[in-house]
Amino acid sequence: MSGVWAHHRIVAAPRRWRAVAARLAASGHAVYGIWRSQIGRPRDELNAILRWPEGTTAAEAEAALLAGIEDVAAAASETMHPTLRPTDEAPPARQGNYAFRWFATPEAHWDEFLELSAAAWPGFEQAYDSEVIGLWRLSGARTGPAGDEATGTAFAGVRSLLLTRRPNLAMWERSKLPANRAEAEVRAKLSRRYDLCEWTSVFTTTLLTARDAEDTARWT
């Protein structure tokens, strides 16, 4: 895949997150997905992933995305590239519980980190009706005020973003508690990966650009 991926964290003015999200979706840019906060982030914060032309910087992507969009209080953007997934540009379409997990991993452990991910994902997806959307390696330069994920910059090595989908929050809990040997083996691989990193942080969201169902719950 050619081009640049970027993660954008956008803080809308109070109670204006839905209007801002609608304008982002209609911006004409290559939107991969727009998510709203579920657990762990403020109500009026949006997370968006977009595709941009090769060579686009985080600052250029952010300026282009937000041009002419009102009610944006703050933003932070970062370019990144996919590793094991995604393997194409097809955006996620199903509603669910989407977890944004950030890692800071020493360079010496990065290859094992990827190997453990590849080995664990098939069992994870089969056992929990879940999907690994993508694992991106962050490029480094970022814009805007530091969010929680930026704390990983304090550590040398590789920063990455893992995006996973579960059908609901109940399955989030279920996926942490293995019920049989096969699930325990998956959890062991993921636990090893967890222990390889210097820092990690996670929050959950729901997909505003889902095609099958709108999430109308008041999570935050």
Overall mean confidence score, pLDDT: 95
What is the CATH class name?
A: Alpha Beta
The secondary-structure class comes to: alpha+beta
Tally of strands:
8
- How would you spell out the order of helices and strands? EHEEHEEHEEHHE
Q: Give the domain tally.
A: 1
Major sheet strand order: 1-3-2-8-5-7-6-4
CATH topology: Alpha-Beta Plaits
Computed Rg: 17 Å
- What is the strand content? 35-45%
Q: Which percent bin holds the helix content?
A: 25-40%
Shape: globular
Largest sheet: 8 strands, antiparallel, barrel
CATH architecture: 2-Layer Sandwich
Assembly type: single chain
Gap from first CA to last CA = 36 Å
Task: Write structural notes for this entry.
A hairpin with a 5-residue loop joins strand 2 (30-39) and strand 3. This protein has a single domain (4-207), classed as 2-Layer Sandwich (Alpha-Beta Plaits). The protein has helices at 17-25, 58-66, 110-128, 169-174, 181-196, and strands spanning 4-12, 30-39, 45-52, 72-82, 97-105, 131-142, 158-166, 199-207. The longest helix has 19 residues, at 110-128. It is built from five helices and eight strands; from the N terminus they run E-H-E-E-H-E-E-H-E-E-H-H-E. With 220 residues, the protein is of the alpha+beta class. The protein is globular. The model has no long low-confidence stretch (mean pLDDT 95). Helix content is 27%, strand content 35%.
